[in-house]
């Protein structure tokens, strides 16, 4: 499966990583989030609706951005990026040696993570549509500010 995104007129083509690579990414993200203090308690997935405050959303967003500085997570993202192209170039550490491409690092890695992790959480997020929409909206707003 291929996911295509546009970033500032440039094309990001993501071919999904293998199951093993993607599950390693999910594990690294989970560990990074736990290290940053994210803990979900008492979540009842059988509820029809779950409320979420902007404060909670902001906390989750901050934790995700902090987790982006985690070396293990970054390594797993680069493994998953091995099948992706940005502006026709392979996405690896060498790409970001070019100063021009560094401005896209977090956006590219966010989209690579989203593409590779979404299949695991699709059924979970179907139970939490308002949370997913609000979370994605907050992430997009944050990345548009940067």
Question: Which helices and strands appear, and what pairs or packs with what?
Answer:
Elements (H helix, E strand, L loop, with lengths): L1 E6 L2 E6 L3 H17 L18 H14 L3 H10 L3 E3 L2 E2 L8 H4 L2 H23 L1 H17 L1
Antiparallel strand pairs: 1-2, 2-3, 3-4
| Beta-strand percent range | 5-15%
> SSE order, as H and E?
EEHHHEEHHH
Strand order of the largest sheet: 1-2-3-4
How much helicity do the residues have? Answer: 55-70%
The oligomeric state is single chain
The class by helix and strand makeup works out as: alpha+beta
Radius of gyration: 16 Å
- The figure for the number of domains is 1
Number of helices: 6
Record field, number of beta strands: 4
The largest sheet, given as strand count, sense and whether it forms a barrel, is: 4 strands, antiparallel
Distance between the termini: 29 Å
Q: How would you describe the shape?
A: globular
- Show unreliable segments: 41-50
**Average of the residue pLDDT scores:** 78
Which descriptors apply to this entry?
146 residues; alpha+beta; four-stranded antiparallel beta sheet; 4 strands; globular
């Amino acid at each position: 499966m291929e996911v295509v995104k546009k970033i500032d007129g440039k094309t990001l083509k993501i071919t999904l990583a293998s199951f093993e690579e993607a599950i390693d990414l999910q594990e690294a993200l989970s560990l990074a989030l736990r290290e940053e203090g994210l803990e979900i308690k008492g979540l009842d997935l059988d509820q029809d609706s779950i409320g979420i405050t902007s404060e909670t959303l902001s906390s989750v967003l901050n934790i995700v951005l902090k987790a982006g500085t985690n070396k293990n997570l970054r390594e797993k993202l680069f493994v998953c990026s091995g099948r992706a192209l940005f502006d026709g170039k392979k996405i690896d550490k060498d790409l970001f040696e070019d100063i021009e491409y560094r401005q896209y690092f977090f956006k590219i890695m966010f989209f690579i993570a989203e593409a590779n992790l979404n299949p695991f959480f699709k059924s979970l997020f179907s139970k939490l549509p308002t949370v997913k929409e609000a979370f994605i909206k907050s992430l997009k707003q944050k990345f548009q500010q940067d």
